[in-house]
Amino acid sequence: MALVEFVMQGLAVLGFLLFVVLWLMHFMSIIYVRLHLCKKRSEVKQPFVQTAGVSLLKPLKGVDSNLISNLETFFTLDYPKYELLMCVQDQDDPAVDVCKKLLGKYPNVDARLFIGGKKVGINPKINNLMPGYEGAKYGLVWICDSGIRVKADTLTDLTNQMTEKVGLVHGLPYVADRQGFAATLEQVYFGTSHPRSYISANVTGIKCVTGMSCLMRKDVLDQAGGLVAFAQYIAEDYFMAKAIADRGWKFSMATQVALQNSGSYSIGQFQSRLIRWTKLRINMLPGTVLEPISECFLASLIIGWAAHHVFRWDMMVFFMCHCLAWFLADYVQLTGVQGGPPSFSKLDFAVAWFIRESMAVQIFLSALWDPTISWRTGRYRLRCGGTAEEILDV
Questions:
Q1: Which one is catalytic: 64, 237, 348, 370?
Q2: pTM listed for this prediction
């Protein structure tokens, strides 16, 4: 019995440690957003003679209702020295016509269209980007996904963060205001759970980067073997960031978010996306198996049990109070990332927050169940360490 009590006490201590860690993550992310993302942009611009040239690589596939308006924002950037390199894999892709239309509308913008890609590995995004990367003429490379929308000064903000010792500048992923509950669900996730993990990891020195919007030093990527070196991975953004960090370079986060504005979205697409990301993390980072205990409901149960075991507090009362505190902290986090109140009501937030939190464990279990992923037009079997093999139809 003494051994059992010792074990129970140890588990209770771990429960309280979990409480401390999770609320440190809450406070770190909330404070960071308020100090970094919400600060007013300096009115002092870099002198144009000192502005670094940037090659913007844009991987495109297919067309949705927002593609042309999203892509047009890159033609209207207020930046004196950049080139826009649009890459499309297939000649008959409707994105080709969108690119040609914008090329005709903005003839004075240094922009080119690359069609056909170059097969160098299993990663379709890398294959698509290869001709553009090989044709890039500037020392900074900005890889930015097709669904991202930018402001006129976004590139200025990114280059301002690219200081002497920084090798990579990334944007915190967020979602633009759109119509429908699926859009609200995405916005709640990218305004609460995702930035809490993303920001607290970067603040504590853990390199956490998504490839939606990344500005990198091309010479450092070339030292690592160029884009070809990352074509064997599906999560190329993680391994590019790792290669840059391994060479002694620091990371910096832009003061503007990477604003996703895809015209194609649904609850099913959102769920599939999170399952795919979880599968990738499990194969790259074994510690991902602990992720479920960082989610609100499971964490509240564990911490509630610890409080009951040590202090004899009512477990369910503690669970409800802890979930309420978490809910309020998440709303504060969301308003910080949004830069003000969200476009949807507090009731919509509450419903979307509850559904998102309820999905967390199911998403994790689904990721464990099947080691294959579907991405773009291919299916891949993941291997331990982050590599993958394409599953070809026979």
A1: 237
A2: 0.93
